[in-house]
Backbone:
């Protein structure tokens, strides 16, 4: 029973550490979500800036997995190129070393658990405020406190080797196979990180085992290498449902870490001697001899591994991009109704999720515009077989717009369940309006197809003058589509007015009014028969309706401000 209780104590302590890490990371992302997005957009112009950006963000949010998943989502949303993402991922690997140093320098020297309960009190006070930003600050303070409380419990739950020497004997069995033992501990580090979904938690466990003398420096170093392999799994899981570029970004992360682990294993003994020399030089003692010094040795190795690996591979970014592009090939054709950016669930913060939703909505708008290109072909189509094919396409696009609206709405519902700032709340409401308007455009496209089908059933035809005027209206509509898509791409932060969209809408309305007046004169003069004129004006009215839906989209964007 004692052993079961001991194991459960270790698992519970580890769970508390992980929970604290999660709350800390999510709280920081909520507080700095928009800033991080701005940093990623502005600081990826060259390799040095990309690495610094990844390092900076990971050092702040204390999770390379969170940064990498964020990067994968940005690649998925088209905000970062594959080459840019590789540099940021390299920086994220350096940034994750900060966690090891915090644990080594603070977690084992000072009893931070003493401050944990007062910190939870401070965090709880912040949580009492109505301001969502202050609540997020409270969340990250509580997360920080729980993280060190968990680490403290983890230290206490590890049995003393003097009272339980059989633990050391058990571990000694795994450390007596020479280089094969190194590989075993690399595998242990990998599996633990995959199971815990956090290299920081595995690092904490490794450092605790070192400080209590459970494992020698060589085996701890091997576990660190395994953690670097295991941490790539999170990004690959996130990318599994994403687009080709995102999957390539996740693979690039794996290539980076696997290459690093390979060359370190080849030069394992001399690298450990170098780390030992550095540790002794700074006055921390020899990690091969002193269990207390092993902490610093492991942290130095972790930092040296990621720094050197980045310095080597940053020059080979184009080759890495070529390699992952070769391994993961883009599909030759992709079905038009497949979502491009939000195939997975919402991301860890509303800001990032809304960015992905924005990209999907831009794609949705382009889809609606494409439907009207087919509508224009159908208006001119005289051949029965060709018309039926176009009618089927327009009907299919109407079904697609219904489905895309529903899927985006479900995604937005998922975002609404999380913590939202006032601004994010306005963006969310605007997005609901926008997708509804774009879906209505899809309905109008199908309505035009049905009007044309009824015209064919009654054996009526539009003359050249009618077709010319419908074409002009469709060209005005095409311009309105372009203005709508431009405004959607710019977003509420980059546009001060929607004069471009208003001008396009006014042009459509004025031309519709002109055609309406002209139609009454034409009926009086028997230029065409009444039924043909009805079909003609029904199409004009449907196009004008689409103009209304299009301006409503731009108005929803500007109203966020």
Residues:
């Amino acid at each position: 029973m004692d052993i079961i209780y001991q194991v459960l104590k270790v698992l519970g302590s580890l769970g508390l550490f992980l929970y604290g890490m999660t709350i800390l990371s999510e709280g920081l992302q909520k507080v700095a979500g928009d800033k991080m997005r701005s940093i990623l957009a502005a600081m990826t112009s060259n390799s040095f800036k990309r690495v610094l950006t990844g390092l900076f963000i990971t050092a702040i949010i204390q999770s390379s997995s969170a940064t990498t998943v964020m990067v994968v989502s940005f690649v998925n949303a088209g905000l970062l190129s594959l080459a840019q993402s590789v540099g940021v991922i390299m920086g994220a690997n350096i940034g994750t070393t900060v966690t090891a140093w915090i644990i080594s320098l603070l977690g084992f020297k000072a009893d931070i658990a003493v401050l944990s309960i007062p910190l939870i009190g401070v965090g709880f006070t912040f949580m009492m405020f109505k301001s969502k930003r202050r609540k997020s600050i409270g969340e990250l303070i509580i997360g920080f406190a729980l993280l060190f409380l968990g680490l403290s419990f983890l230290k206490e739950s590890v049995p003393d080797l003097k009272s339980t020497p059989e633990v050391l004997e058990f571990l000694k069995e795994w450390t007596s196979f020479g280089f094969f033992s190194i590989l075993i501990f690399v595998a242990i580090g990998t599996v633990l990180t995959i199971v815990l979904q956090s290299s920081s938690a595995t690092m904490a466990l490794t450092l605790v085992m070192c400080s209590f003398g459970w494992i020698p420096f060589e085996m701890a170093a091997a576990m660190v290498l395994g953690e670097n392999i295991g941490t790539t799994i999170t990004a690959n899981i996130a990318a599994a449902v994403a687009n080709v570029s995102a999957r390539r970004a996740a693979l690039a992360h794996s290539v980076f870490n696997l290459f690093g682990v390979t060359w370190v294993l080849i030069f394992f003994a001399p690298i450990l001697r170098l780390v030992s020399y550095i540790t002794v030089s700074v006055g921390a003692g020899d990690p091969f001899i002193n269990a207390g010094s092993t902490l610093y040795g492991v942290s130095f190795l972790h930092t040296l591994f990621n720094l050197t690996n980045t310095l080597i591979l940053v020059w080979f970014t184009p080759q890495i991009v070529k390699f992952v592009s070769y391994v993961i090939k883009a599909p030759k054709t992709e079905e038009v109704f497949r979502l491009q950016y939000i195939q997975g669930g919402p991301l860890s913060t509303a800001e990032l999720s809304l960015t992905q939703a924005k990209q999907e909505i831009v794609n949705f708008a382009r889809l609606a515009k494409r439907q009207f290109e087919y509508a224009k072909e159908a208006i001119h189509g005289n051949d029965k077989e060709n018309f039926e094919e176009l009618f089927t396409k327009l009907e299919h696009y109407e079904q697609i717009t219904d489905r895309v609206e529903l899927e985006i709405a479900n995604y937005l519902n998922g975002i609404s369940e999380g913590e939202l700032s006032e601004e994010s709340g306005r963006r969310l409401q605007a997005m609901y309006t926008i997708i509804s308007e774009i879906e209505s455009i899809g309905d109008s496209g199908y309505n035009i197809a049905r009007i044309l089908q009824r015209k064919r059933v009654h054996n009526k035809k539009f003359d050249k003058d009618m077709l010319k005027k419908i074409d002009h209206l469709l060209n005005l509509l095409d311009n309105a589509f372009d203005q709508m898509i431009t405004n959607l791409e710019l977003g509420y932060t980059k546009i001060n007015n929607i004069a471009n969209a208003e001008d396009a809408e006014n042009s459509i309305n004025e031309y519709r009014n002109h055609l309406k007046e002209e139609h009454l004169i034409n009926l009086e003069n028997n230029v065409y028969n009444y039924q043909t004129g009805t079909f003609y004006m029904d199409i004009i009215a449907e196009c004008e309706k689409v103009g209304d839906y299009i301006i409503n989209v731009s108005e929803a964007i500007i109203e966020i401000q």
